[in-house]
Amino acid sequence: MPGAAAPAVLLACTLALGSPAFAGPRRLPVAATLSQTQSRRMTITYYPTSRPPWAEVRIPHTGHSRPLEVPGTLRGSIVGGREVAPHSRPYMASLQLDEKHICGAVLVWRRWVLTAAHCEVAWNLSDFRVVLGAHNLNTPEPTQQVFNITRAVPYPLYNAQQDIHDIQLLKLHTSARRTSSVRPTPLPCRNRYLRPGSQCHVMGWGETTGHDDPSAALLEATVVVQPRDTCNASWRGALTRDMLCASTGTRERRGVCAGDSGGPLFCRGQLQGVVSFSSMVCGSPHFPDVYTRVSAYVSWIRDVLQHY
Q1: InterPro entries from the xrefs (predicted)?
Q2: Which end of the chain is more exposed for a tag (fewer CB within 10 A), N or C?
């Protein structure tokens, strides 16, 4: 409720996090405006979907011989990953539509999970639920806790056309019960930047190839934070200071795929990113996966937890 005392949100800081590697990245939209380029529209069928099935994506026609990749056509399972030890990631959450996994999320407070804003739930909250304490989504594990969603709070400046500020908080109908399989993760220090080359881990229940059903068991892949200029060269200047990108840094395919959107990126044991978008080819070494940089939104997260 407004005016309530602020919850004692856990914060985690580390000296391994450095200053911004690039001070002034270009802030160009993924989908250019009509004044910048001719454009066309096409309807994308998401499978599995993290948006309502009628969602449209606006695609610019750039005149380049190589077509522009559509960020999020295969919204970010884990490609090139490995199964984690059961219940070893107690903060991990599954966002489900009609009891089927569509997005990842992460528990940041006893009644709040953090996910991507493009994992849209506000159009019908009653159809969605959050599952905590899960490892295998096809098995009714006794560790699982299931919650209805009572409120969705996307970041106020979220822009679906440009994929910017792709972050939201979801409020559970009651507090999660803290167990060895369910536990919130601390937030990172505000506005800290990861150095390029930092090794991180992304996890999820999404597809494992880009052409199959989601993984039943929770998977995790190791990726490396890439320099911002490398990211913008791949994504044509689409990354802002509030994003980061990661890949293997080699020719190996590894990364996120459909169903991984909203899932967490952990670096040195700390929450640093939320899966935002990837290329049409899951885990492509040519198009690093893009994440919303959580440290840029710590103040907003604390404000939401205090006032709702």
Answers
A1: Peptidase_S1_PA, Peptidase_S1_PA_chymotrypsin, Peptidase_S1A, Trypsin_dom, TRYPSIN_HIS, TRYPSIN_SER
A2: N
- Active-site annotation holder among 118, 135, 165, 201: 118
Confirm whether 276 is a catalytic residue: no
Considering 261, 278, 279, 295, which one is annotated as catalytic?
Answer: 261
166 flagged as catalytic: yes
Answer whether 119's CB lies under 8 Å from 103's CB: yes
Architecture of domain 90-184+298-307: Beta Barrel (2.40)
Cis amide leading into 48 (omega within 30): yes
3-state secondary structure 135-158: CECCCCCCCCEEEEEEEEEECCCC
Told to judge if 118 belongs to the known catalytic residues of this protein, a careful annotator would answer yes
Q: Are the C-beta atoms of residues 246 and 76 closer than 8 Å to each other?
A: no
